[in-house]
Amino acid sequence: MKDESCVVNDKMVPFATFYIIIFLIGMAGSLVALWAFIHSRSVKKCMNVYLINLLTSDFLLTLALPVKIAVDFGVESQRLTIFHCQVSSPLIYISMYASIIFLAFVSVQRYVQITQSSKLFRLQEVGFALVMSAVVWLLVLFINVPNMAIPIKDKISNSTLITCKDIKQDVGKHWHTLSVFLGMAIFMNASVAVLMSNGLVLKQFWGKRGGDPQEQATAHHATVNIAMVTVAYVVCFVPYHAVRMPYTFTQNEIITDCASAMGGRNWVKATVLCKTGAQLVNATGSELDKFIGSLNYGLFHGQGLKQCGLGGRPFSFSFFPDLVDVIPASLHVSVIIFCAVLILFSSLCSAFFMYNAFGNPYETLHGPLGLYLWNLISCLCSCLILILYASEVKLHRLSEKIANYKESTFVYKTYSEAFDCSFWLIFIVFLVHGLNILLIRLAGIQFPFQEAKESDANTGAADLMY
């Protein structure tokens, strides 16, 4: 049987192509943002502090990408790899998590502006923003600078195909794992702040949809901007963090089994027929069983048993990087991304449910935001997962492509195929969120609950755009 250890692939040329696009767009976007920021007069001073720091962190991230691109393209230079592991890679993490935190601060500051609560007045002071910015930079530096400073191994293999794991000492590997844990904690807390703050601001704007036409147009413009920022945050950071922890565990050999690292194989169960062998001996009936093997797989990996009349041949595989050239990779990656988004927004639905249970159920259930919005997004994501994955399996004959991968002697074809429990779990999630939407829609009747008081804030929609 093939070795079941989980192989870490650090040479991903397709991702390097995306990094080039990100680098070009990021550099142009940073320059445009700098120009717009210099000429803007509508942003409050406290917001200025956070935006300057956000722009700085984004620019540093862009500058660190060329080395990452060169390494992922497979430039055979040991010095370049060492420089990437000790300098550019930690710089990427410093910039990324600083950007995430400052995005959270911007979102919270926007919500504070619209509430105008006297209890939150100190949060709008420039001095407070400066102190918090300094704390953020000190925090991300404290987490990631040791990855630069901890000495590497004295003796490094002369091979050019080394990875960061190969040059780190044990203490460096342990600190890297700890820094990933801390980064994940930062991301989770920042995500709650971003999504909750933006959701509450969007809820406020929805209440202004019937006001003055000019104010309504401004509110609509601000709503679109905030929604775009929220979607961009989810698309940019959620898929990465969904695989960051298992990748680090396998990289440091904390987890050696791909099944533990990447989830189960219970998406599809299939049987494959050895067409070449069956035709050769004209097998029928019970004799055909000797030529039928099994196959089960998920989104990342799978295993099976091939039979061609001479006994079984167990095998295992991973989609990345083994099968990336034979499967519809863009379709498969889209399914994975939508799964990550579904997990995030399903969790958010649970948080809003608890908020409604102990807060003011009438106000949130009666409006289209809150539970309504997150359930709708989750329902759409689960529906897209079902459609895309079913089309990948059925229309692109995924099981046959897997069975015939690197097979030069025999030809296999799908004998039977059925979706397994993980696929149907997504279907159940789709039904649950759809039922929630229906119940929320039917909840538009007058309940005997006291409505929350309208905010006395005088902040307009124009103050909340950036």
UniProtKB/TrEMBL annotation:
Listed GO CC annotations: plasma membrane
Similarity-based family: Belongs to the clarin family.
GO terms, molecular function: G protein-coupled purinergic nucleotide receptor activity
Protein name: G-protein coupled receptors family 1 profile domain-containing protein
Organism ancestry: Eukaryota, Metazoa, Chordata, Craniata, Vertebrata
Residue intervals of the G-protein coupled receptors family 1 profile domain: 29-245
Protein source organism: Hemibagrus wyckioides
Domain of life the protein comes from: Eukaryota
Gene3D superfamilies assigned to the protein according to its UniProt record, in alphabetical order: Rhodopsin 7-helix transmembrane proteins
Pfam families: 7tm_1 (PF00001), Clarin-2 (PF25807)
Keywords noted in UniProt: Cell membrane, G-protein coupled receptor, Membrane, Receptor, Transducer, Transmembrane, Transmembrane helix
Subcellular location: Cell membrane
Bilayer topology annotation: Multi-pass membrane protein
UniProt key word Transmembrane: yes
Transmembrane segments: 12-38, 50-71, 91-108, 120-143, 178-201, 222-242, 331-357, 369-390, 423-443
